Amino acid sequence: xxxxxxxxxxxxxxxxxxxxxxxxxxxxxxxxxxxxxxxxxxxxxxxxxxxxxxxxxxxxxxxxxxxxxxxxxxxxxxxxxxxxxxxxxxxxxxxxxxxxxxxxxxxxxxxxxxxxxxxxxxxxxxxxxxxxxxxxxxxxxxxxxxxxxxxxxxxxxxxxxxxxxxxxxxxxxxxxxxxxxxxxxxxxxxxxxxxxxxxxxxxxxxxxxxxxxxxxxxxxxxxxxxxxxxxxxxxxxxxxxxxxxxxxxxxxxxxxxxxxxxxxxxxxxxxxxxxxxxxxxxxxxxxxxxxxxxxxxxxxxxxxxxxxxxxxxxxxxxxxxxxxxxxxxxxxxxxxxxxxxxxxxxxxxxxxxxxxxxxxxxxxxxxxxxxxxxxxxxxxxxxxxxxxxxxxxxxxxxxxxxxxxxxxx
Length: 409
What we know:
The protein has 16 helices and eleven strands. The chain is α/β, with parallel strands linked by helices. β8 (218-229), α9 (231-242) and β9 (253-256) form a beta-alpha-beta unit. α5 crosses α16 and α9 (231-242) packs across α13. It has a single domain (3-408), classed as Alpha/Beta hydrolase fold, catalytic domain (Rossmann fold, 3-Layer(aba) Sandwich). The strands form two sheets. A nine-stranded mixed beta sheet has the order 1-2-5-7-6-8-9-10-11, with helices on both faces. A two-stranded antiparallel ribbon has the order 3-4. The protein is 41% helix and 16% strand.
């Protein structure tokens, strides 16, 4: 089956409204498993906060009150903690039918501003075929099916994009596809941190459900590895660096088109976020974070009381900062991380992947492959759905996933 025919076949079968999708005649099925996040308490928008672990109380969330967004659309102004689709959601899992619980799992984590699993379906199938492991497609908070439907409505978001172009005449890369995330991150850049933290905790919750035997499709003793793309790599790196609960001490990570510190990524794109959002995000997380910690007690509390998580999170924000801590940890993880970058990737350039994962002196033995494809591609679409590309597309796809599978077996 070619890449394009596999994608067409999988799209004809994929239906998240049903508990399972048979992929017959292939020996696989897609289960749609549910998770109710226990971690929305960290999200902004509530009138009162309490950290039960440390007995700390906080008043109305200043994070959002100080950054009121213009009146774009009501769905973009809803308190983050009240968005139900982000709290209870389903995630697809590729597995073999009739074989009992999976004894090994690869968690696939996607890129920034994604609302459909389409392009990842052939990736997951190929990983399942090549490794013999089940593949879980795990959605980041406020992405995929964890978003309000209005955020994917082209008519509504075109109007939002038009309002942004009028309000910011010099804006670049504004589009209906990135309007929702751009409004939200410009208004409150700390959402990157809080939604990432929720997702971090949700991944831990998923693994804890497996370990406790409550996951009906995965053995409690199953190994858990990661395939991460783009910003999903940032999250996965922090998970391995911190190893919450000791659940990831043996986990492997394959990085595709990702891996560098946040300041070495260039996400201004019609498909990711517009230029105003990028400026706000970088200013907050890279230039002014120390000042923001002094301004906001709740943010400061989580950084202070969870030093392992936040030290590594901060080490992944800026290349010069906490470099020794970051490089020491990557050196310890080197045998478990492998990466593949694309030469023409303008969002995450290969040199930045190498700089972060191998260090200035190139003395960290993380293996980084740099590949190029014989057709026009981009960070967002490394494998364009074009039958006319023929064998070139199939060879490029197979080359990437042969390397990934060899690392994750």
